[in-house]
Automatic annotation (TrEMBL):
Keyword Transmembrane attributed: yes
PANTHER family registered for this protein in UniProt: MONOACYLGLYCEROL_DIACYLGLYCEROL O-ACYLTRANSFERASE (PTHR22753:SF14), TRANSMEMBRANE PROTEIN 68 (PTHR22753)
Highest rank taxon of the organism: Eukaryota
A Pfam short name: Acyltransferase
Bilayer-spanning residue ranges: 31-60
Entry's Gene Ontology molecular function annotations: acyltransferase activity
Record's protein name: Transmembrane protein 68
InterPro entries in the record: Plipid/glycerol_acylTrfase
Organism: Nothobranchius furzeri (Turquoise killifish)
Record domain Phospholipid/glycerol acyltransferase: where: 100-219
CC terms in the record's Gene Ontology section: membrane
Length: 308
């Protein structure tokens, strides 16, 4: 009786869990695999070939600069590694985004300059800009980054090779007085996370970058390239958490504005306001508002843009 009762319970459990239909499920799954596997193969394999072609183009991009890389490695191991990575990023920008930079002649060939830029959600355009400066100018642009970047495991060697610092103002002034280029985004992570398709400048009352320029007596160059719970988390705990999407092969252009020379009669507040107006002018001149992913994708097929 006990055995019969256990068999009945097992049959009831099998029926309740739907296990009696497992064979049907497996047959249906087999049918799906039989139908969709050819489709996957048809679409995935050509995509892999496209990836292979792009990797081949990237290799040729690096090979084209082999003499420069060889010379860089002969001088210093880090110089060679820096130039190799810059070449890879430059190639990625050229292939994936058709990256262009306008106004590179405004970056000095030697001597200090402070570069102020708009901070995108993922500032990959700034990475391309750094790579272009290394390749075309033969200079390394120091960059100011948020503290959280230095807490990411394994990032330290990359930050050291590309001279990334987290401040404070004294360290920024020291870099400029030593004759380096220095890139700063006054909006920082706040601008990256909470700006939108209208490209507002979220600088608040920040003027530290202007004080750095005044203390260093340097020329200042201008570079253009979700709210709710996520903003509260950032403002309260400085956690850069927000949903991120994108990575589409849209057209990327960087526009460098006219330099703002050092003026001993200009205060930090006045200089900060002047810089903000100048960056806003670059946005108004070169950025179609609101931004559009579809329009940016279409721009890969034509080169029409507003000139400086």
């Amino acid at each position: 009786c006990v055995l019969v009762f256990q068999v009945c319970l097992f049959d009831m459990w099998v029926e309740f869990a739907g296990l009696d239909q497992v064979e049907d499920y497996l047959s249906f799954l087999e049918y799906l695999l039989w139908v969709f596997t050819p489709l996957v193969v048809v679409f995935v394999l050509p995509f892999l070939i496209v990836i292979l072609l792009y990797l081949s183009i990237l290799f040729l991009h690096v090979y084209k600069r082999k003499n420069q890389l060889k010379e860089a490695y002969c001088n210093n191991l880090y110089d060679g590694a820096r130039k190799t990575l810059a070449t890879l990023w430059d190639g990625h920008g050229a292939i994936w985004h058709g990256y262009e930079i306008h106004g590179m002649e405004k970056i000095p060939d030697e001597g200090p300059a402070l570069i102020v830029y708009y901070h995108g959600a993922i500032p990959i355009d700034y990475y391309y800009f750094l790579a272009s400066v290394i390749i075309q100018k033969g200079r390394t642009c120091h960059s100011v980054a948020d503290h959280f970047l230095f807490k990411i495991p394994g990032f330290k060697p990359l930050l050291e090779v590309f001279s990334v610092i987290h401040g404070p103002q004294e360290e920024c002034v020291r870099a400029l007085k030593n004759g380096h280029l220095l890139g700063i985004s006054p909006g920082g992570v706040r601008e990256a996370l909470f700006s939108d398709e209208t490209y507002p400048l979220l600088w608040g009352k920040r003027k530290g970058f202007a004080q750095v320029a005044i203390d260093s007596q340097v020329v200042m160059n201008l570079c253009l390239s979700l709210t709710g719970l996520f903003r509260w988390l950032y403002e309260r705990f400085r956690l850069p958490i927000a949903p991120v999407y994108g990575g589409f092969p849209v057209k990327f252009r960087t526009f460098l504005g006219d330099p703002i020379p050092y003026d001993p009669n200009t205060s930090a507040e006045q200089l900060a306001e002047r810089v903000q107006q100048a960056v806003q002018s670059l946005i108004d001149t070169h950025q179609q508002i609101p931004g559009s992913i579809w329009r940016a994708l279409l721009e890969r097929f034509y080169t029409k843009h507003k000139d400086l």
